[in-house]
Design brief:
The protein is an alpha+beta fold. The chain has 17 helices and 17 strands. Bound molecules: S-adenosylmethionine.
Length: about 500
């Protein structure tokens, strides 16, 4: 059958109750920003365009099936959301991709359906995809396949935003800024001593902006790196150094120096993780570094060469499974088993730089797996898994819903769905996965102590699934009420 004649592509457009995932991610990542225009190429029913307009963005869309009379136009950000996967002709598919790219002044957001969704769609094989029972076509992309296709068609810098979603950048340094911001941590709040509180309070907002900068980047800013009003205030101190000296007085010299040193160390680690991460997409030349990153490099490493050398040493260690294993054993965050180190996503920043790079290597392939809350770093082979436990906080023994496994040797992503399983794997000892300052750490630890006392956690290898755990509870005569163990009457 000549599918190109009959495939009703417009039927693939669904009514969206919320923003589509690629558009929501682009907003969260600052790709779509207030001053930028957006064009949704293949916008379907136009729900993303409508929502973006409501949010105050200048957005337009075109779709051959739903809004054929709109104008196809250039924009700062072009979204090509789940369009390439509905086109059955590979040559036309590539043409659409290139056309969308030609319209994008800054960034093209491309989303396509990932291969693991194929099993949810019934139909028969057609070309490189399937013809569904409704007569529409779907091509499901492996993550690495989508990446290779973008690379060969567009020959531009791109970043994996999430599984099945990529940002393609016109300007290399924008890609680098995004990668750098992904590994930067936020500063902790400050408690300022009483005597100088008045001075501090008078200019609190501006001084906090300066402090926030220093505690995030581990260095003093240049004037142009601060927001307008802060820059004016700092200028009135006659130099940033003077303003920082006031801050040091206000906060206390010892505390300030300690914070600055920790911030420097964190910022150095963040930069090393970024430079190692950037090596995968081709590290930029020194002259092409985003301005703020170039200033970080100079202040924290002296030179770009020195920073890259250190990042390369770490990358070298990522290829050394023994070094990874040893670092997993020493980790001050996460649950260590014979097989792997498991870390709740709230604790990823606390991993050593080597383990952060290990995890970042997987993210080069997958992008951010937004739903995942536990990351498994294998000790035996270079494999990282993103595990999703939707009710991790509420359920005392949450069940695994989905897992995305990244094999760094084979550069392959595999997905397993447990949502239909009657007997999924479950978690115990939740406090071991989260950092000690996690808001529920004490509650989780309390439950574990009760369960230990009741003998419920003996021989933990045999209680790893929902059914086995229920049998253990029944056998010993207990039930759970929230995070409390109750003895059955
Ligand atoms: C799955 S829908 C996605 C719609 C929208 N982007 C969203 O995420 O809700 C795919 C859309 O691609 C459109 N489409 C099909 N062929 C196209 C082409 N050659 N150029 C642009 N859009 C096309 C279809 O009309 C359909 O509305």
């Amino acid at each position: 059958m000549d599918a190109t004649q009959v495939v009703p592509r417009h039927l693939t457009a669904i009514a969206r109750p919320d923003l589509s995932k690629p558009v929501a991610l682009a907003l969260a990542d600052g790709i779509i920003a207030p001053s930028l225009t957006v064009f949704d190429y293949g916008c379907g029913r136009g729900d993303d365009v409508t929502r973006l307009k409501v949010l105050g963005y200048e957005a337009h869309g075109w779709d051959p099936g739903h809004c054929p009379d709109s104008r196809i136009r250039s924009a700062d950000v072009v979204n090509l959301g789940y369009v390439v996967n509905v086109i059955e002709d590979p040559a036309e598919r590539a043409w659409v991709l290139r056309t969308a790219w030609s319209l994008a002044r800054h960034v093209l957001v491309v989303a396509a359906r990932p291969d693991w969704e194929a099993r949810t769609v019934a139909g028969k094989r057609h070309g490189d995809g399937i013809l569904t029972n409704r007569g529409t076509f779907q091509k499901f992309f492996r993550q690495e396949e989508l990446q290779a296709w973008l690379q060969s068609e567009l020959k531009a810098s791109f970043v994996a935003a999430a599984p099945g979603i990529f940002y393609v950048f016109r300007d290399e340094s924008r890609a680098q800024s995004l990668l750098a911001s992904r590994v930067t941590r936020r500063p902790a709040p400050i408690h300022c001593p009483d005597i100088r509180r008045a001075v501090y309070e008078t200019h609190r907002e501006e001084m906090d902006a300066l402090r926030g900068f220093v505690e995030t980047r581990g260095r003093l800013p240049e004037l142009r790196e601060l927001p307008g009003t802060t820059a004016q205030l700092i200028a009135s101190f006659s130099s940033i150094k003077r303003a920082a000296a006031v801050l040091r007085q206000v906060i206390g010299a010892e505390e300030w120096d300690h914070r600055l040193e920790s911030a420097r160390e964190r910022a150095r680690q963040d930069l090393l993780v970024y430079l190692a991460f950037a090596a995968f997409s081709g590290r930029p030349k020194a002259a092409d570094l985003p301005k703020e990153v170039a200033l970080d490099v100079k202040a924290l490493f002296g030179s770009y060469r020195a920073a890259c050398d250190q990042a390369d040493q770490l990358l070298h260690c990522v290829a050394d499974q023994q070094a990874l294993n040893a670092t997993c054993r020493q980790s001050r965050v996460g649950k260590l088993t014979a097989e792997a180190l498991y870390v709740h996503t709230s604790g990823l920043d606390l991993l050593s730089p080597l383990l952060r790079i290990y995890e970042a290597c997987a993210r080069v392939l997958t992008g951010t797996v937004t739903e995942a809350n536990i990351v498994k770093l294998s000790r035996a082979a270079p494999k990282v898994s993103y595990l999703t436990y939707p009710d991790f906080d509420r359920n005392p023994h949450p069940a695994l819903a989905t897992s995305l496994h990244v094999d760094l040797n084979l550069l392959r992503v595999r997905y397993v769905d447990f949502r239909e399983s009657a007997n999924p794997p479950i978690l115990h000892r939740k406090e071991t996965f989260v950092p000690t300052d996690h808001p529920s750490h004490a509650k989780f630890a309390y439950l574990t102590r009760q369960e230990e006392r009741a003998g419920l956690l003996r021989d933990s290898a045999s209680i790893g699934t929902r059914e086995r755990w229920q049998s253990r509870l029944d056998e010993l005569g207990y039930r759970l009420h929230g995070h409390r163990v109750i003895q059955k009457k």
